[in-house]
Q: What sequence folds into this?
RNA sequence: GCGGGCGUAGCUCAACUGGUUAGAGCACUAGAUUGUGAUUCUAGGGGUUGGGGGUUCAAGUCCCCUCGCUCGCCCCA
């Protein structure tokens, strides 16, 4: 293969892919807007510290997946591997604490150095929503409802299931962690080697291990619910009540553990079976400790991220845009006249395609490829009479109309 | 980082146990039609069989290395 190929894990988004992509983004912007979220666009890169501090040194993202480099000024920079840290940073840099509760949405590319596979790329794209400054469980409910609404409007609600868990507040989580480590420590010899590594790094992860032996151990392991203190229990109960009121169905999944350190209380994922090994289509939760960890004041936060590619792959066929009108001038005088006509039609809202060169035959052929419904043929003979031909490419019929009445004579866009 | 599968024309794929000049469909270009597309017919262009090395009288086919793609593990969206 030549070197003229995209870097591994990146790809060009064109044609059908592009339509799917913008379909996802368009619906997202519409839904987020109706929930009262404002758009924010944060930089594609941040000081590496921003991600290291918030995601945790031991997380996979930080330890092996970051695209980092030293810039010319000697600063260590990282291409963003996720949204939340950057948005939290923007919240602090922009003094948004002053504004009380802040609801933000964003979408754009993310970068992680991983082995690509179905639904996973090194440059991929996410939708993201965050509510900052709201410790209330109602915020969790709203954020989940937004995800549900998004899936419904994309026609994917039936393909995804909402999985819900509580990680508890820091106190509960810590207590559970201790109990869990003690339990698995006592069964070290039966643990898989992957899980052995997880034991010291992120013991909660053992819960969703795919190893059969691990799963047998997990079946008898201590359960998070038993370690939730009253505050934590009340919190998740309120969230569930909200979901019930909205009629949003969920599955309790005590094994649902998010990979990043900063999550607490609510953790949730919308999961599908239609994407191979990458089932998570929307994933998020609450991260009350993050902003403080970053050096700001204690600030609550809850949000989710969704994979645009993954959502796009689930979409059924996305229709093409409006069928253009092909404008076909023949001869120099007609070229100039056509230039004006094209402009007028476009100002009137019509989709117009005009080739830059070619004989009639060539141009009609192009019109056909562009999926044009009508062609306007402006030849020397017609021009002399002040007329043009409107040809219906589906029917194969055509008629002459006066140039003045062209727009009116053109059937509406289909 | 680890494991499986696969690399033949722009795309989708053929080529019997190794055997002559690597084929087809789609796409592209031109002509049949000097001002009529899509349909039809005819002709044409396009390949160092991913790259390198080896075995053999002979390699797209067998062996080794390498690059790439793909699916999975880890982890995540």
A:
């Amino acid at each position: 293969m030549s070197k003229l190929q995209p870097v591994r894990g990146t790809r060009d988004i064109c044609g059908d892919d592009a339509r799917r992509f913008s379909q996802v983004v368009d619906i997202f912007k519409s839904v987020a807007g109706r929930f009262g979220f404002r758009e924010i666009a944060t930089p594609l890169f941040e000081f590496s510290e921003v991600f290291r501090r918030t995601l945790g040194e031991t997380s996979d993202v930080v330890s092996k997946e970051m695209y980092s480099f030293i810039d010319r000024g000697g600063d260590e920079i990282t291409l963003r591997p996720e949204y939340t840290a950057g948005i939290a940073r923007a919240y602090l840099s922009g003094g948004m604490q002053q504004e009380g509760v802040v609801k933000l949405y964003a979408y754009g590319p993310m970068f992680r150095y991983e082995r690509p596979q179905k639904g996973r790329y090194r440059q991929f794209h996410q939708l993201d929503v965050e509510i900052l400054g709201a410790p209330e469980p109602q915020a969790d409910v709203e954020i989940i409802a937004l995800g549900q609404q998004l899936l419904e409007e994309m026609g994917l609600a039936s393909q995804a299931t909402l999985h819900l868990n509580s990680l508890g507040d820091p106190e509960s989580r810590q207590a559970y962690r201790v109990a869990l480590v003690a339990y698995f420590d006592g069964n070290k010899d039966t643990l898989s080697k992957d899980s052995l590594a997880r034991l010291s790094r992120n013991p909660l992860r053992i819960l969703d291990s795919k190893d059969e032996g691990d799963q047998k151990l997990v079946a008898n392991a201590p359960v998070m619910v038993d370690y939730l203190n009253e505050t934590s229990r009340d919190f998740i109960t309120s969230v569930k009540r909200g979901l019930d009121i909205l009629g949003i169905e969920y599955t309790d999944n005590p094994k649902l553990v998010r990979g990043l350190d900063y999550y607490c209380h609510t953790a949730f994922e919308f999961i599908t079976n239609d994407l191979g090994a990458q089932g998570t289509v929307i994933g998020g939760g609450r991260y009350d400790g993050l902003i403080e960890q970053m050096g700001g004041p204690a600030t609550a936060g809850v949000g989710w991220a969704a994979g645009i590619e993954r959502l796009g792959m689930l979409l059924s066929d996305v229709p093409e845009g409006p069928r253009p009108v092909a404008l076909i001038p023949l001869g120099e005088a007609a070229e100039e006249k056509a230039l004006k006509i094209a402009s007028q039609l476009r100002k009137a809202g019509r989709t117009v395609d005009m080739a830059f060169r070619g004989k009639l035959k060539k141009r009609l052929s192009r019109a056909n490829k562009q999926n044009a419904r009508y062609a306007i043929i402006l030849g020397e003979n017609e021009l002399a009479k002040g007329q043009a031909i409107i040809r219906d490419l589906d029917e194969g019929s055509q008629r002459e109309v006066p140039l003045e009445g062209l727009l009116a004579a053109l059937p509406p866009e289909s």
Notes: Residues 16-34 of chain A form the longest helix (19 residues). Chain A is about 40% helix and 20% strand. The mean pLDDT of chain A is 91.
